[in-house]
Design goal:
Layout (H helix, E strand, L loop, with lengths): L9 H25 L12 E2 L3 E3 L10 E6 L4 E6 L4 E5 L5 H14 L30 H22 L10 E3 L4 E11 L12 H7 L2 E9 L9 E7 L16 E3 L4 E5 H5 L4 H19 L4 H4 L14
Antiparallel strand pairs: 1-2, 2-3, 3-4, 4-5, 6-7, 7-8, 8-9, 9-11, 10-11
Length: 312
C-alpha cells in the first residue's frame, strides 16, 4: 500500500513543489495562449498519464504540440505532429533558466508563442525570467507526487461515473497545482467576488458562473501545511459547514470554507479508495441536499467496466 499511496510530507519537498508549480505554469500558459477558451478554464488543464502529467493536444496551424512532464525519466517532453521533439532534463535549476530553455525548445520546434510571464494564483510572485529563487528538484518526491495523482485520478474517475449532469473532466490545474473534479447543479450562481492573487476577476467569475460541488487534492500550503483532499460548494448552502461527512477525521475549515481530509488519513486507512470515496460522496451529498439539487435527475449508479448504463 505504501507503494500505491506513498508518503508525501509537505516539509520534505516544499521547495521542489514550489519550483515545479512554477514550471507547470510556464507550460500551462502555452496552451492557454494558443487554445480557444473553454468554459470554466477547462482548456488549460493537464491530464495524468502513465509517466506524469500532459497537456491535451495544442492545435497550431498544422504543427500541433503536446507537452509532458515525465516523472519516471524526469524529462519535459515537447513533441509535435510533424515528428519533431525536444526535451528538457528536470533537475535543480532556477525558474528563470527553465523558462529560457523552454522558450529555446519551442523556437527550435517552430512554435511561435509569447506567454504571460507573470505567475498566477501565487501571492508575491515575480516574472518567470526574474525568478532565481526557486531552483529545487528532488526526483524522488516529484515521482511520489505523481504516484499519488495516479491513485487520486483513479478514484475521482470512478466517482465521476455516478453523475449524469454536467461534470468536469478529472484534471490537473497548474494555477493552483491541484487535481480536481467538479459537479454542476445546472443552475446559475451569484457573481463570484474574485480577489484570487494574480488572477483576473473575469476568469474567477467565469469559472464559478454556475453552482458547483467540487473536490480535489493538493500537496498543501498556506493554512494547510500537509497534503489533503478538499471539497467545497459554490455558493455554499446554509448549514454546509455543519454537515456530517465521512470519514470522522474529515473537518470543515472555516478560513478556507472547505471540508478537509488529510491525505495521511486516506493513505493509512484499511481501504484508501473507499475512505476517499466516502469523503467525496458525503461532501457532495451535503452540498446537493442542502442546496436542493435535483438529485434524481442528476445521478446514476456507479459505472462498471464493459457494462452500458441501464436506461429505463
Amino acid at each position: 500500500m505504501a507503494d500505491l499511496w506513498p508518503e508525501l510530507p509537505y516539509a520534505a519537498w516544499v521547495k521542489t513543489y514550489e519550483t515545479l508549480h512554477l514550471w507547470t505554469q510556464i507550460v500551462g500558459k502555452t496552451r492557454l495562449t494558443l487554445t480557444p477558451w473553454l468554459n470554466h478554464s477547462w482548456h488549460v488543464t493537464f491530464r495524468v498519464t502513465a509517466r506524469g502529467i500532459i497537456t491535451p493536444l495544442i492545435a497550431n496551424d498544422g504543427n500541433d504540440l503536446q507537452i509532458e512532464f515525465d516523472f519516471i525519466d524526469h524529462v519535459l517532453w515537447l513533441r509535435t505532429s510533424k515528428g519533431a521533439s525536444r526535451q528538457i532534463k528536470l533537475r535543480p535549476i532556477t525558474v528563470a533558466q527553465f523558462y529560457t530553455e523552454y522558450r529555446q525548445a519551442l523556437s527550435e520546434l517552430g512554435i511561435a508563442v509569447e506567454i504571460d510571464a507573470m505567475p498566477n494564483e501565487i501571492a508575491g510572485a515575480v516574472p518567470f525570467a526574474q525568478d532565481t529563487t526557486h531552483a529545487s528538484y528532488d526526483p524522488e518526491y516529484a515521482n511520489r507526487h505523481w504516484r499519488v495523482l495516479l491513485r487520486v485520478n483513479e478514484v475521482f474517475q470512478y466517482f465521476r461515473t455516478a453523475f449524469l449532469g454536467k461534470a468536469s473532466p478529472v484534471h490537473f490545474f497548474w494555477g493552483s497545482f491541484d487535481i480536481a473534479v467538479t459537479r454542476f447543479s445546472g443552475r446559475h450562481a451569484p457573481l463570484h467576488p474574485g480577489g484570487v492573487p494574480n488572477l483576473s476577476d473575469a476568469v474567477a467569475r467565469e469559472a464559478y458562473s454556475h453552482e458547483v460541488s467540487s473536490a480535489g487534492f493538493w500537496p498543501g500550503g498556506g493554512a494547510i501545511d500537509y497534503p489533503a483532499f478538499y471539497s467545497y460548494a459554490y455558493p455554499a448552502p446554509q448549514g454546509f459547514g455543519e454537515a456530517k461527512v465521512k470519514p470522522e477525521v474529515a473537518f470543515f475549515h472555516k478560513e478556507l470554507g472547505e471540508f478537509i481530509l488529510p491525505y495521511d488519513a486516506v493513505r493509512t486507512s484499511a481501504d484508501p479508495k473507499q475512505t476517499l470515496l466516502d469523503f467525496l460522496q458525503s461532501t457532495y451529498e451535503a452540498a446537493a441536499d442542502l442546496g436542493k439539487w435535483d438529485r434524481a435527475a442528476l445521478e446514476c449508479d456507479f459505472g462498471q467496466p464493459g457494462t452500458p448504463r441501464v436506461v429505463k
